[in-house]
Design the sequence.
DNA sequence: AAGTATAGTTGCATTATTAAACCAATAACC
DNA sequence: GGTTATTGGTTTAATAATGCAACTATACTT
């Protein structure tokens, strides 16, 4: 598995991708948000090779994104549930989702939408805001090395 | 290169990852936001194999994320610049960055920060909001199939 | 106890990635 | 105008990751 180059060791984007930047991890996390917990559920949902799923689940547990709990409903198998760190990936998935909706359905309309559970209404697009509340685009920002 | 499984063909997250879910693409896009444009600049910054960079750049151009423009400053070589579609990946990178900052620097502090260009102040954390403005966590949302 | 489903592991074939050499087209120098 | 260095790749061979299918072990069902 890849590691970030040394030049990139300080970049939080690179470190994030180090943990979840492979082919499957974010899809596993997406399914975990959707409520899947068991090895077989993930495997069936993703259609991926089982040995790779084993490796990915192990990696996500080691990264502290998933927790392998012995049993939830009395059943004897392990279940994989999101930790707080894993739940914090939610904005990443939402950002990918919104970008995919906007740009990866040319011609057709995306048939799946993310809605507010209470009201059933679609959520707002994510927006980056400055400390004073102004909306910011990429060009309005700057990467700075902290003192 | 992987393609999403057929079950996932409708999921915008899967389609997004299909375009930028590999090891390098998002780092290339990050560097493009940072202002890099030339083959050699990307290669030097990322330290990746050049043939793979060739393939990734071609893929990003085919996906409409980058545009290969013949010359910007009169120089004769190609330059790779973000399209509108590519610039729309900004929230994805910010989400990864903020997650990385919060969780991938255990013990140490992340020395790089994203700031508002005008004011120099750090940006706000991305937040998902309902149509009526309420903050939403993952558990407050639902995936729904559109009529 | 026998049969079945779950959760992996193992071994082998396929594919992706890397590192390094190679090449063509500028650009810089003299 | 010819030589040399740099840029932007391509090709090739070795290495690493991934997928597929068969296998094992444990738990559940009857």
Sequence:
């Amino acid at each position: 598995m890849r590691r970030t180059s040394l030049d990139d060791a300080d970049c939080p984007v690179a470190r994030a991708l180090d943990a979840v930047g492979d082919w499957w991890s974010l899809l596993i996390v997406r399914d975990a948000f959707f409520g899947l917990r068991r090895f077989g559920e993930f495997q069936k949902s993703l259609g991926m090779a089982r040995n790779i799923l084993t490796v990915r689940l192990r990696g996500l547990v080691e990264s502290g994104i998933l927790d392998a709990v012995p049993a939830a409903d009395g059943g004897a198998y392990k279940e994989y549930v999101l930790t707080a760190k894993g739940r914090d990936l939610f904005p990443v998935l939402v950002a990918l989702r919104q970008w995919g909706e906007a740009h990866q359905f040319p011609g057709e309309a995306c048939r799946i939408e993310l809605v507010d559970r209470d009201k059933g209404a679609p959520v707002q697009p994510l927006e980056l805001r400055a400390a004073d509340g102004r909306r910011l685009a990429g060009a309005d920002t700057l990467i700075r090395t902290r003192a």
Remarks:
- The first helix of chain A runs from residue 12 to 20.
- The domain at 6-140 of chain A is CATH 1.10.10.10 (Arc Repressor Mutant, subunit A).
- Chain A has a mean pLDDT of 90.
- Residues 2, 38-40, 43, 50-51, 53-54, 76-78 of chain A lie near DNA strand C (CB under 10 Å from a C1').
